Structures are given as structure tokens and as C-alpha cells.
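Notebook p. 47: complex prediction with pyridoxal-5'-phosphate.
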Amino acid sequence: MSAIDAFRHEPRIAYFSMEIALRNDIPTYAGGLGVLAGDTLRSAADLEVPLVAVTLVSTAGYFRQTLDDQGRQTEQPSAWEPALWAERLEAMVAVTIEGRGVWVGGWCYVVKGHMGGAQPVILLDTDIEQNSDEDRRITQTLYGGDNAYRLRQEIVLGIGGVRMLQALGFEVREYHMNEGHSALLGVELLRRYARPAEDLRPGESPYDIPRVRELCCFTTHTPVEAGHDRFSYDLVQRTLGDVIDLTTLKRLAGDDHLNMTRLALNLSEYINGVAKRHAEVSRHMFPGYRVHAVTNGVHPFTWTSASFRRLYDAKFPGWCHEPELLVRADCCMADTAIWEAHVEAKRALVDAVKERTGIMLQPDHLTIGFGRRMTAYKRPDLLFSDLGRLKNLAARHPIQLVVAGKAHPRDEPGKRLIETLHAHVKELAGVVTMAYLPGYDMDTALTMVAGVDVWLNTPLRPHEASGTSGMKAAFNGVPQLSVLDGWWVEGCIEGVTGWAIGDDIDAADGDAAALYQKLEQVVVPLYYQDRAGWIAVMKGTIAKSASFFNSHRMMRRYASETYVR
Ligand SMILES: *Cc1c(COP(=O)(O)O)cnc(C)c1O
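Predicted complex, C-alpha cells below:
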């Protein structure tokens, strides 16, 4: 009996994602999108919503980040061994790429919930003897290579994935495209349900678009235009061939380029953005489409540190299944219990920073955390825009910083930001202690969001579709100080769940001043002068943010509104 047999007895939702953060040791994710996909599966396992996930095996991972003392990033492969974690599939399917057949095999990994549930994940793999060396590398590197490599990967994911599910005998009731990378699955479905030529009147299209739309839903994840894959029709014709006629493809995916987002939009009956604000922005970007909002969430158990798990287990039994129970956290938890749980998490952070960087943080100093992909719109340097003001602030009350994040190998401005931050570390020496942890991953993220006192988030509006790390902080009673973008537009109750930087109307050039002002006048004084007031905010964060911004609520919404329509 193979691992996959346990999952074929009932119809499932096929969840397609280019990246999935299955666990910390499996480096098949680059950032927020993958972590969200992983949390989606973990919630589906806990809630027993039948999914089957499809992704690429990415045997060379994303990359391992090393930083020299000036913050120059270099990337090494982050290889992993699927055989240690997953079972090889017996089925193989073929896709056509550049006119030749490419074999696609794969692996079955099982996401095991901590409450007994499980979900299968199909990891597609072209590293098969029958394939040429070049084709064997198609599923190797996540977001690696050029546009042609990316298109080959997306053919394997979308077209190969649908064929693999069929070969494995899955009955699929709905296909969920997590971002546009997998939109070619719709093209494969058009082909599958096409009417034979002899049934057609002259000039009639064989494709049953309404039928395919009925089977598909699509979640868009970024308002950044460059985040949407586009391929020239030259490249598409060379690579994809005539899998579907060009006129139909252009009608569905755009006249000038094959735009994967357009394709997904046109082939999906249900479309959603990942926060209310993001859905509004997406409606402007894609007029004529009905874009719903299903605000993201994070997986309760995964993103809660040991000390807070113990606290919740004692106070709110069942919170892992029903995180809504945490809504009472502000009324029935002792201040000392919350503070002690936080001190324990902070000690773990201090130890980790010492071990990984040699830097000694002070456990009783206000600690600000910032961890995310290093890219321009996230503005990791906003806090440093006026070093004099930052030094003055630190002279009155000590503050220390813990920062982490990778830049995409081809994101030069992102890489320069890491160097800039390292230069600031030197300039601030002796005034503000700052540690940059290399190799941001799920474990580092949990240690940071739980161990700092405040989680900082400074994206340029409206570029942050949702953001999820602030939600992780909330499960650990750590309030967020953030620009009003993404989920924070919904989550921020000023002084109750954290604090806003600026408002959501004024131009962004006032954000730095607003950040300093909020730190100087509200956050720092509250931390040092009113501990009970501070703990009240910690409780507000748990009661009002964690109870709501979790992936169980998100999955229950997908299950009841998206998958069952
Ligand atoms: C949560 C997480 C992210 C996404 O954080 P954002 O706040 O959405 O930017 C990225 N990388 C890792 C490792 C994470 O755990």
C-alpha cells in the first residue's frame, strides 16, 4: 500500500502552488506565498477539508543565504533529498515542451496535522532517466533561471499537474490556483473537455469555457505589476506549441503577452484577493472581474512558541482547532503569566542571536523585529532614514533591533538594501544594538516573531497584499507597529492590537516621520513606563488579532464560499 492510497477514496480540492513551505527542513519555498500555502495545508489537515496539493519538487531549493561582514549576499543551492521525506510515485505522465516529450514523475509527501488529519502533496519531478539533462533540471530550482525556464516549469506544474492527478486516480471537484503560476492547468482542462471536431459547426470553438470556469478558482497575491508572470507569444509558441489555438489563448491571456494572471482570471469562476484592501486594489487593476476578499491567516499551532502553547492549552483547551477561543484572552489571562511566557520566548531569541551572530542582546531592552523578503517596496531602511533621530531616541531609552531576510538572487536593489542595513549596524554601534540573522526561514521567523517586543512592518502602500508575519507575532502576544496596508487595515485597532504608522490617506513620504513619532511618543514610553499598559496591548493582540487572522478561519471560508458554491 502506498501513502497516496489513503487519499483517493473521496473527491478532493486540487491546490496548485509553485512553492509550499512544508517544513523548515524542506527548502521548497521563497517566502510569504509558500508559507501561506503550507499553512493552508496544515489547516486543511486539522479541519479535515480534503485537499491534494500539487507543486514542484525543487530539489535545489530556493537558495541558502550567506552574508559577508558588509552584508553582501551570496547564494548557494539548498539541496534536499526527497527520498528522505516522501514516497516516489509509480505514475508518470508526459508533457510536450519545445516539441519533445518530457516525462514528469513525482513524490507523495504527507502533511500530517498535529490533531490526526493529513493531506497529500504531489511534488512533480522531471529528474527522470528518460529525459535529457536539461529537462531533468526543470523542477530543480525555485524561481531560478530565465523566462524560458520559468515557462517550462509552469507547463510542468499546470499541465503536468493536472495529468498527474488523473493518472493517480484522483477525483478533483475543484482546482485552486494559488497565484497565477499554475494557470496553464486551465488550458489543460479546456483540452480535456473540448468537443470533438466532428460535433462542431463550421467556425465553432471546441472549448467549453464555462465548464472549465466552473471547476476553477484563483487567488491573486500581489498588486505589484512585476509579480505577474508574462511570456511573449514567440516564446509561448516555441515552448508550448499548439496545445491550444493562438486565437483562443490570446482571447483568454491577453493580446500582447501571455499574462498568467489574465489567464487565471478568465478561467476561474471565483477570484479572490488576500485582504480586503488588496481585493479593492485588484478590482482597479482588473476591471470587469468580481474579486472577492478572503483575508489570509497563519496556522495557530505552527506559529505559537512553546511557552504560549502551554498557556493556551491550560486556559483555552481546543484553541488549536478553534482559535476563536482566544477572543477571551484580554479578559481572563493573568498579566504575570503572559509576561513570563514572553520572557521565555525572548530569552530563546537572545540565545539564538548570540549563537548565530555573537551579538549579546539585553533581555530587558525594548527589542524591535523586522524579518521579510528584502525588496524595495518593503522599505527595510525606513527606520534608518534619520539616523540622528534614531540615536536620540536610543539615548533616552535603549532599543535594539533584530533583522533578517533574503533578497531574490536577481533583485539588485534588494541586495543593496541588505548592504545598507549592514552599514547602519556599524554607524549605530554602541548606541543601538542590531543583529542581522542570515538565512531567514520558518524557524528563524518563529524565534523572531515570538521573541521581540514589537514587530515592525513598513511596506509602501498599497504594495503589501496581505503580509502574514505580523499575524504570527500576534499568536505570541507581540504587537505590530505597521503602515496601514494589507491585513493591518483590518487588524489595527490603535493602542489595542498595536499601532499604525501614519494614516492610510496621506502620501507615503511622511511615513518615516510618523514612525519616529509613534516610537518616541507612544511605543517606547509605554514599554518602559507602563508595563501593565504594555501587557494590555499584548492581550489585545492575542484576543483580537490571533483569534481572527488565522488560517483556520481562512480555510473555513475557502471551504464554504469558494470550494462549495
Ligand atoms: C511568514 C514568512 C514570510 C512572509 O512574511 P510577510 O510578513 O508576509 O512578509 C516570509 N518568509 C518566511 C520564512 C516566513 O516565515
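Notes: The mean pLDDT is 96. Residues 31-32, 35, 372, 440-442, 445, 467-469, 472 surround pyridoxal-5'-phosphate (CB under 6 Å).
Next step: compare against the earlier run before touching the bench.
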